[in-house]
Design a protein that fits this description.
mainly beta; Immunoglobulin-like; 4-stranded antiparallel beta sheet
Length: 150
């Protein structure tokens, strides 16, 4: 079967190109701080790994990289909701992962009164009960506004 035909059949088979879709946004927190949210929506049955894993002998953790900028500084390390922790027989180790809709976040503190962008990438690995996909790095660029002018 040629690749074009296979790609045309994927939607009909209920299969998408990748079981994760990302969205990025920023929220003003006050005191020149802004939270940048990186939200992933996973297809049912898939999970993404936590920012920190109990062992380095299994899957890869999710990594958030933020490019350096003179417009802001990182105010806090990356955050995530509480992860499910369980033994994974496929890897033979305890893992920590998330399913469904998951929001990772970083907090930045503005060094300017002008709008700026937070750029970076999120690198992650997805697995389901049968298989794992190779790690993927998704770039992001999030506009961050300033406080409303009076």
């Amino acid at each position: 079967m040629n690749v074009s035909l296979l790609l045309a059949l994927l939607p009909l088979l209920g299969l998408s190109g990748h079981p994760a879709s990302w969205s990025f946004s920023a929220t003003a927190l006050g005191n020149k701080q802004h939270r940048v949210d990186l939200t992933v929506t996973l297809e049912e049955g898939w999970h993404i790994y936590a920012l920190e894993l109990p062992s380095n002998e299994g899957p890869l953790p999710t990594v958030i990289r933020v490019e350096h900028s003179s417009a802001f500084e990182l105010a806090d390390s990356a955050g995530e909701p509480e992860a499910v922790e369980k033994y994974d027989p496929n890897f033979g180790v305890v893992v920590r992962h998330h399913s469904g809709v998951v929001t990772f976040s970083v907090t930045v503190e503005a060094r300017t009164d002008k709008a700026f962008e937070v750029e970076g990438e999120v690198e992650y690995m997805l697995c389901n009960d049968r298989t794992c996909l190779p790690p993927v790095a998704v770039p992001f660029k999030v506009p961050v506004g300033t406080s409303p002018k009076k």
